[in-house]
Design a protein that fits this description.
heterodimer, A: alpha/beta, 8-stranded mixed β-sheet, globular, B: alpha/beta
Chain lengths: 325, 324
C-alpha cells in the first residue's frame, strides 16, 4: 500500500490558561487527546462533531498554525513538526484551508483580484499579466466571471464570497485542502452549488480533502471516510456508507438519530442524549462520554476504551465492543 | 379549529434605498394544538411574519395590508395596551439567541418571577415555587440550584430551556419560536425540539416554528408553510407536502438537500438568486429562477390550487392548460 498523503499519530493539543484574572493557578484544556488517523491522496475524510469537540483545533494543528503538544504529523512523508519554519512555509503552499465565514476570512479592503493574487504574489515570481490570466482562470474554475476581479467582499453574496475564498485557496495548486464548515453559513440552494463545485474541483485537480462539519447530511454526500469526534477524541472511524448503515459508538448513534431528516414518513426511535458536552478543562474520568451514555458500564467510568477494529476499516473506542463482541 | 389566521399580510420597511417589500401577501392558519413550520431561505420573510403577529416589528417597518385574526380580534388593529395583554400572556415568543433575550443582570428565578407577578402571583414564595416547577417542566436538572443562577452560568441549551420556562409562566396558547435551535448543537437541538413537541402534546400549546431547516419541519411539525420572497408558495400537511411537493421551488429545495442516496450524484441547484426586497414583483416571484416558467408567470401572480384537502400550491403549472 502506498503511503497516505497525511498520517497523524498520537496528536494532542493542550491549552494552558489561567482559571481567573487574578488567579495564578493554571488550568489545562485538552482540546485534542491522542488522535491518530490517515488520509489517502484523493480521498475526503469527514470530521464530524459538535462544538468544542476539537475539530477546528485539529485543522489549525495540521497546518502548524498551532504547535501541538504531542504527536506527529506526516504530510507527503515528511514530519511537519520537525520542519524548519522556512521549509514549513513552502510546504503550506500544498496545504490550504477554507473557513466557514468568507466575510471574516477575506479582507474587506481587497478586491477579488487582490484576494486571489495575494498568495501568488507571496509565493511566486509571476508578472502582473501572468497573475491576471491566472486569476481569471481560477475565477472561471470556481464558476465566476472575470468581473469579480474588481468586486470587494461586501458586494458579494455568501455563495460568491465562498467561491472567491476557494479560488484563493486553489491559487498555489495545493494537494490538500482543509474545509472547515465551508457551507454552514449558506442557504440550502447555495450550499448545493458549493458542494457540487467542491466535488468537481476534487476530481479535476485530484485534491485531498479534510472536511470538517457538524452536518451529517453534507458529509454523507461528500465524505469517503468519516471520523466522529467527542471531547478531543476520535470515538469512531469508518467509511461513509458504514457509519450511516451501522453506527457502533453510542455517541455516533445518538448523533445520527438527533439529525433531523426531511422525511416525515420515516418513523424512528429517537435517541435523545441527556445533558450537554462536558468541559474539556475538567473532562469526565474514563470514557468522556460515559455521563451521557445509555449503555454505561462500570469500567467506562475509570478506563478510556482503546480503539479497536470491529470489522475491516471500522474502528470504535467503546467498551461495548470488547471481547470480540 | 383555527386559533390564529394570517390574511394577506403585507409589510414594508422604509430604508435609505427605498421601500423594501418584506412580506408581499402571506396567508396561513394555525389550528389549536398543532405545530406549524414557517420555512424558507434567508430573506424570505419568515421572521418578519412571526414578529408582525405580536407587533414586534422594528420602527421602520409598516404593515401596509392584511389582518392577523386571533379570537375575533385583528391583532394589527389593537391598541398597544390591548396588544400587551395578548403578547406574552396569550402569544409568547422564543428567539434564536437566548443569551440576548434573557437579562444578564437578573437570576433565572427573578426573571420568571417577573412574568408570574405580572400574572397575579404576588407572593415571593409562590413565585419561587412556580418557578421551580416550570424549570422542572422544561427538563432542567436541579431546578433548586438553577433558579438562583444568572444566564451566563447556563449552557446554550439550558438558556433556551429557561427561556421556554419563562414563556410558559404566562400559560400562553401560542408560542412563536424563531429559529430556537439554530445556535445549538444537534444533540441539544433534539432535546429542545422534543420539549416543544411535549408542550404541544401535553398542554395543547400551538407553536409557530420558524426555521430554515426542512429536516426540523419534517420531524417536528404537522403543518408547513413554504415562503419565498415574502409570499407563500406552498402549504399543507407535512406528510403530503414532503411526500409530494408540488411547487417547483419546494421541489428544488428538497432535491438540493444532500442525504442518504445522493452520494456521487450532482445535487440539484436552484440557479440565480432570491429577488431583492426593493423589487416590485408583478408575476410569480420564483419565475426568474424557475425551469418551468411560462410567459404568464412573469406577468400574473398564480392563485393557490388545491391538492386534496390538505395541500395548496401557487403555480400556473397546476392549472389546466389553456391557450393564452
Amino acid at each position: 500500500m502506498t503511503e497516505p498523503l497525511l498520517r497523524v499519530q498520537g496528536l494532542s493539543m493542550t491549552f494552558s490558561r489561567k482559571s481567573g484574572f487574578f488567579s495564578r493557578v493554571g488550568e489545562e484544556l485538552r482540546a485534542l487527546n491522542d488522535l491518530s488517523f490517515t488520509i489517502n491522496a484523493g480521498e475526503t475524510l469527514g470530521i464530524v462533531g459538535e462544538s468544542g469537540c476539537g475539530k477546528s483545533t485539529l485543522a489549525r494543528c495540521l497546518l502548524r498554525l498551532l504547535t501541538p503538544t504531542a504527536g506527529q504529523i506526516y504530510f507527503a512523508g515528511q514530519d511537519l513538526l520537525a520542519l524548519p519554519d522556512e521549509t514549513m512555509r513552502r510546504m503550506r503552499q500544498r496545504m490550504q484551508i477554507v473557513l466557514q465565514n468568507p466575510f471574516s476570512s477575506l479582507s474587506p479592503r481587497l478586491n477579488g483580484f487582490q484576494l486571489i493574487a495575494e498568495p501568488l504574489r507571496t509565493h511566486t515570481t509571476m508578472s502582473r499579466k501572468e497573475m491576471m490570466d491566472e486569476v481569471a482562470a481560477l475565477l472561471a474554475e470556481v464558476g465566476l466571471p472575470s468581473e469579480f476581479m474588481s468586486r470587494h467582499p461586501h458586494q458579494l453574496s455568501g455563495g460568491q464570497a465562498q467561491r472567491i475564498a476557494l479560488a484563493r485557496a486553489l491559487a498555489l495548486n495545493p494537494d490538500f485542502v482543509i474545509l472547515d464548515e465551508p457551507t454552514s453559513a449558506l442557504d440550502v440552494s447555495v450550499q448545493a452549488q458549493i458542494i457540487n463545485l467542491l466535488i468537481r474541483l476534487q476530481k479535476q485537480r485530484a485534491l485531498t480533502y479534510l472536511f470538517i462539519t457538524h452536518d451529517l447530511g453534507v458529509i454523507q454526500h461528500i465524505g469517503d471516510r468519516i471520523a466522529v469526534m467527542y471531547l478531543g477524541k476520535i470515538v469512531e472511524e469508518t467509511s461513509s456508507e458504514r457509519i450511516f448503515a451501522n453506527p457502533q459508538h453510542p455517541y455516533t448513534q445518538a448523533l445520527l438519530s438527533s439529525t433531523p431528516l426531511p422525511d416525515p414518513s420515516r418513523s424512528r426511535q429517537r435517541i435523545i442524549l441527556p445533558g450537554t458536552v462536558p468541559s474539556a478543562v475538567d473532562p469526565p474520568s474514563g470514557c468522556s462520554f460515559h455521563p451521557r451514555c445509555a449503555h454505561v458500564m462500570d469500567q467506562c467510568r475509570t478506563l478510556y476504551p482503546a480503539a479497536r477494529q470491529t470489522s475491516v476499516g471500522h474502528h470504535v473506542s467503546c467498551h461495548l465492543y470488547e471481547n470480540g463482541a | 379549529m383555527t386559533l390564529l389566521a394570517v390574511e394577506n399580510l403585507h409589510v414594508q420597511f422604509s430604508t435609505p434605498f427605498g421601500a423594501v417589500y418584506a412580506l408581499r401577501g402571506i396567508d396561513f392558519e394555525l389550528s389549536k394544538g398543532e405545530i406549524l413550520g414557517l420555512v424558507g431561505e434567508t430573506g424570505c420573510g419568515k421572521s418578519v411574519t412571526g414578529r408582525s403577529i405580536i407587533g414586534l416589528l422594528d420602527e421602520n417597518a409598516e404593515v401596509t395590508q392584511g389582518r392577523v385574526r386571533f379570537e375575533n380580534a385583528d391583532l394589527l388593529q389593537l391598541s398597544e395596551a390591548d396588544l400587551r395583554e395578548i403578547r406574552g400572556n396569550r402569544i409568547a415568543m422564543i428567539f434564536q439567541d437566548p443569551a440576548v433575550a434573557l437579562n444578564p443582570l437578573f437570576t433565572i428565578g427573578q426573571q420568571i418571577g417577573d412574568v408570574l407577578r405580572a400574572h397575579g402571583a404576588d407572593l415571593r414564595s409562590e413565585q419561587r415555587e412556580r418557578a421551580l416547577q416550570l424549570l422542572n417542566d422544561v427538563g432542567l436538572p436541579d431546578p433548586a440550584q438553577l433558579v438562583d443562577v444568572y444566564p451566563h452560568q447556563l449552557s446554550g441549551g439550558q438558556q433556551q430551556r429557561a427561556m421556554i420556562a419563562m414563556c410558559l409562566a404566562a400559560e400562553p396558547d401560542v408560542i412563536i419560536a424563531d429559529e430556537p435551535t439554530t445556535a445549538l448543537d444537534v444533540t441539544i437541538q433534539a432535546q429542545i425540539l422534543d420539549l416543544l413537541r411535549m408542550l404541544q402534546r401535553d398542554r395543547e400549546i400551538s407553536v409557530i416554528l420558524i426555521t430554515h431547516d426542512l429536516g426540523i419541519v419534517a420531524e417536528t411539525c404537522q403543518q408547513v408553510v413554504v415562503l419565498y420572497a415574502g409570499r407563500v408558495v406552498e402549504k399543507g400537511s407535512v406528510e403530503t407536502l414532503f411526500a409530494q411537493p408540488q411547487h417547483p421551488y419546494t421541489r428544488g429545495l428538497l432535491s438540493a438537500l444532500p442525504r442518504a442516496g445522493s452520494r456521487g450524484r450532482e445535487l440539484n441547484v436552484i440557479s440565480g438568486t432570491v429577488p431583492s426586497g426593493l423589487e416590485r414583483i408583478k408575476g410569480c416571484a420564483f419565475a426568474p429562477r424557475c425551469g418551468f416558467a411560462m410567459p404568464r408567470c412573469h406577468e400574473q401572480q398564480p392563485a393557490f390550487s388545491a391538492f386534496g384537502p390538505k395541500q395548496q400550491s401557487a403555480c400556473f403549472l397546476h392549472e389546466p392548460l389553456n391557450h393564452d
